[in-house]
From TrEMBL:
Keywords: DNA-binding, Transcription, Transcription regulation
Species: Actinomycetospora aeridis
Domain HTH lacI-type: 17-71
Source taxonomy: Bacteria, Bacillati, Actinomycetota, Actinomycetes, Pseudonocardiales
Protein name listed in UniProt: LacI family DNA-binding transcriptional regulator
First and last residue of the signal peptide: none
Gene3D superfamilies according to UniProt: 3.40.50.2300, lambda repressor-like DNA-binding domains
MF terms (GO), sorted A to Z: DNA binding
SMART domains with a match to the protein in the record: HTH_LACI
Region described as Disordered: 1-25
Pfam families the record matches: LacI (PF00356), Peripla_BP_3 (PF13377)
UniProt keyword annotation of Disulfide bond present: no
Length: 352
């Protein structure tokens, strides 16, 4: 208690400063403040000095928990990946690992694919995972999972999509979809089908951006989107093959198809060829990604720089460990996509 000299009463002491107070005053995240107070080698000297000045100004005394979070660096970054065997995630990991290696950091991979596997990982997270940062690869983090990640007191970065809560690197899925659709419309197609894939936890805020692009492009061209021309299938080549079969079964099939991704598109092409139809003379097909198989199959696509997304996410991790990411989450970094013209698209009814 302190004495109130005017009233003679003793006033209650002010609440002790917290690590959040120090971080706010220094203009950094709590994780960075914790590392700065613990002399983490990846925190810039100027940032460390600013955090210490803020702590002294606030008479901050580290709590046992804050001391634990400020423990020595591990040199490890946890990477959470739902489908490590898929090309997209493999490319993200390649780029991420290169950037982390350049920063003298090790990548530790954790698979969080099925619901049980994912739940078990997050249940054991605080007790078992001692890392300097976490990278989430292209899946949406639920609210309870967000809280578990926050309990680590480290920076979180997202690669391969956008997330409002964390620094992230991805592409504009709606924009990529518009590039594909605008190409087909420019060629003269008016009855355009879409093979979408089931939403299995893709990243917000635009998990269905490519599907919304299909609708928007048709609407802008004065074409009413027909619900029968939109089919949703499981991800992958088999799903694409089944989706194409459903579209061919319509009374009036489309003259062109926009597939959510290249692997789905390649499945669609297989169905067309087995049905004796010519691509693109009888039906055009376009995908998204620029998967290596797309070039071999001469598939028209919209390319996205997948490996570069991983690399930039790794650079964000290194910047965070140096104290260069402020408390405010920076806007999502969106890398450009581009149309790649090959031999699976042409004007409707084009001669052989």
């Amino acid at each position: 208690m302190t004495e109130d000299t005017q009233s003679g009463r003793r006033a209650a002491p002010a609440s002790p400063a917290t690590l959040d107070d120090v971080a706010r005053r220094a203009g950094v995240s709590p994780a960075t403040a914790s590392r700065a107070l613990g002399d983490h080698p990846h925190v810039a000297v100027a940032t460390r000095a600013r955090v210490r000045e803020a702590a002294e100004a606030l008479d901050y005394v580290a709590s046992p928990e804050a001391t634990r979070l400020a423990g020595g660096p591990t040199g490890r970054v946890a990477v959470l990946v739902p489908h490590p065997a898929r090309w997209f995630f493999g490319e993200l990991i390649e780029g991420l690992e290169a950037a982390l290696r350049a920063a003298d950091l090790d990548l530790v991979l954790f698979r969080v694919g099925g619901p049980e596997e994912r739940a078990a990982f997050f249940d054991r997270l605080p007790a078992r995972r001692k890392v300097d940062a976490v990278v989430v690869l292209a899946f949406a983090v639920a609210e309870d999972e967000h809280d578990r990640l926050a309990s680590l007191g480290v920076d979180i970065v997202v690669a391969g999509g956008r997330a409002a809560s964390y620094p992230s690197v991805g592409v504009d899925d709606h924009g990529a979809g518009r590039q594909a659709m605008d190409h087909l419309i420019h060629l003269g197609h008016r009855r355009i089908g879409m093979i979408a894939v089931e939403n299995t936890g893709r990243l917000a805020p635009d998990p269905d951006g490519r599907t919304s692009a299909w609708r928007a492009a048709l609407g802008d061209a004065g074409i009413a989107p027909a619900d029968e021309l939109l089919v949703t299938v499981p991800w992958g080549g088999e799903g694409g093959a089944d989706g194409m079969a459903r579209l061919l079964g319509l009374r009036t099939p489309p003259t062109a198809v926009f597939a959510h991704d290249d692997e789905t598109a390649l499945g669609a092409v297989r169905t067309l060829r087995r049905a004796g139809l010519r691509v693109p003379e009888d039906l055009s097909v376009i995908g998204v990604d620029d998967h290596p198989l797309a070039a071999l199959a001469d598939l028209t696509t919209v390319a996205q720089p997948v490996r570069e997304q991983g690399r930039r996410a790794g650079e964000l991790v290194a910047a965070g460990l140096r104290g260069e990411l402020r408390e405010r989450v920076p806007p999502a970094e969106l890398l450009p996509t581009r149309l790649v013209l090959r031999r699976t698209t042409s004007p409707p009814g084009a001669p052989r």
